């Protein structure tokens, strides 16, 4: 199972790949990613694609709303990766 | 039913100034302040200032006094006159605003934007079957489909997470049907510039063919008196 820290790194890496100008250290864990980083829907889908590929899990479209903040994304992914090797 | 529609675009080719910040409401300023990246923050301020400038004259107040609220999904609406519907979108270099007498959504993307997410993530099976084989043509087609679907979701503002795959576009990309509700939305391509792909969506089927003009073809509306950097078009759609 992936630890929450590992999952946080996965999400941050995806965000900084899509938006290279983002300083990962400055990102609030509870802020809306789209609002705080001015990511649009296409950026978010690219982030989700990268996370999904890196963790080897399918993230259904209905669940995209569960990845709106860093904390929410980590919590969601922790639930989804139980049983997977991280 | 007639839907009166006006659309404006403006390059976002300068940083936001104090004057732009000053016309924003406190909540808009708060939202702008939360945007971490300076250029992104500047763009948000410019587009919101643009919207206020456009609304000030018809509302009959100054730009800073226009009452703009936001839905739960962050979409702006005009508290001074809820019968007026707003559509707003921007890239890093252009802002587009639509003001209409009915629900409207707009979306704009840069034509050179890459990468576009894997089509399997956001296109229906039928849409994927109709993708062009050539790389360049397919990229443009994908951007057209993306802006169409985004505009549709903005026009219906479903209030819950409704995904792009639940918006099914017909063969010509002009009519969208929402999978769950069967809601019909008309999509019109917007000719913002050769460097952009943009779409506009209104609820319902049109009862006659649309005659959406090119930007810059404005018919004597107030935008013609503004700075030459504004481009505008207006039309009436029969629904």
Summed up, what is this model?
The complex is a heterodimer of chains A (86) and B (239). By secondary structure, chain A is mostly helical.
Write the layout of secondary structure elements.
The complex is a heterodimer of chains A (86) and B (239).
Chain A: H1 4-18, H2 33-37, H3 41-55, H4 70-80
Helix pairs in contact in A: 1-3, 1-4
Chain B: E1 2-11, H1 18-23, H2 26-34, H3 38-59, E2 68-70, E3 76-78, E4 85-90, E5 94-100, E6 104-110, H4 125-129, H5 135-156, E7 167-169, E8 175-178, E9 184-190, E10 196-203, E11 231-238
Antiparallel strand pairs in B: 1-5, 1-11, 2-3, 4-5, 6-10, 7-8, 8-9, 9-10
Helix pairs in contact in B: 2-3
What does this structure look like?
The complex is a heterodimer of chains A (86) and B (239). The termini of chain A are close together. In chain A, helix 1 (4-18) packs across helix 3 and helix 1 (4-18) packs across helix 4 (70-80). By secondary structure, chain A is mainly α. Chain A has helices at residues 4-18, 33-37, 41-55, 70-80. Chain B contains 5 helices and 11 strands. Chain A binds chain B through residues 19, 21-23, 26-27, 31, 35-38, 41-42, 45-46, 48-49, 61-62, 64-65, and chain B through 31, 34-37, 39-41, 43-44, 74, 109, 113, 115-118, 121-122, 146, 150, 161, 163-166.
């Amino acid at each position: 199972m992936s630890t929450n820290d590992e999952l946080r790194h996965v999400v941050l890496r995806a965000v900084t790949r899509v938006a290279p100008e983002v300083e990962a250290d400055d990102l609030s864990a509870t802020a809306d990613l789209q609002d705080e980083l001015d990511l649009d829907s296409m950026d978010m889908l690219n982030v989700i694609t990268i996370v999904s590929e890196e963790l080897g899990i399918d993230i259904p479209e209905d669940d995209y709303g569960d990845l709106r903040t860093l904390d929410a994304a980590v919590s969601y992914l922790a639930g989804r990766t139980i049983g997977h090797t991280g | 039913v007639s839907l009166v529609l006006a659309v404006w675009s403006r390059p976002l080719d300068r940083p936001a100034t104090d004057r732009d910040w000053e016309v924003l409401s406190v909540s808009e300023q708060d939202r702008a302040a939360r945007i971490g990246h300076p250029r992104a923050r500047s763009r948000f301020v410019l587009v919101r200032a643009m919207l206020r400038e456009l609304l000030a004259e018809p509302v009959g107040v100054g730009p800073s006094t226009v009452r703009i609220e936001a839905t739960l999904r962050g979409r702006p609406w005009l508290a001074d006159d809820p019968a007026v519907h707003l559509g707003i979108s921007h890239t890093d270099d252009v802002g587009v605003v639509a003001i209409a007498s009915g629900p409207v959504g707009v979306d704009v993307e840069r034509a050179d934007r890459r990468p576009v997410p894997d089509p399997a993530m956001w296109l229906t099976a039928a849409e994927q079957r109709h993708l062009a084989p050539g790389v360049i043509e397919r990229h443009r087609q994908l951007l057209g489909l993306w802006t169409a679907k985004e505009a549709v979701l903005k026009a219906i503002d479903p209030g819950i997470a409704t995904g792009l795959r639940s918006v099914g576009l017909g063969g010509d990309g002009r009519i969208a049907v929402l999978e769950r509700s069967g809601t019909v939305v008309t999509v019109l391509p917007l000719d913002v510039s050769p460097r952009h792909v943009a779409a506009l969506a209104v609820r319902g089927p049109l009862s006659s063919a649309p005659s959406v003009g090119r930007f810059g073809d404005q018919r004597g509306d107030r935008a013609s008196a503004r700075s030459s950097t504004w481009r505008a078009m207006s039309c009436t759609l029969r629904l």
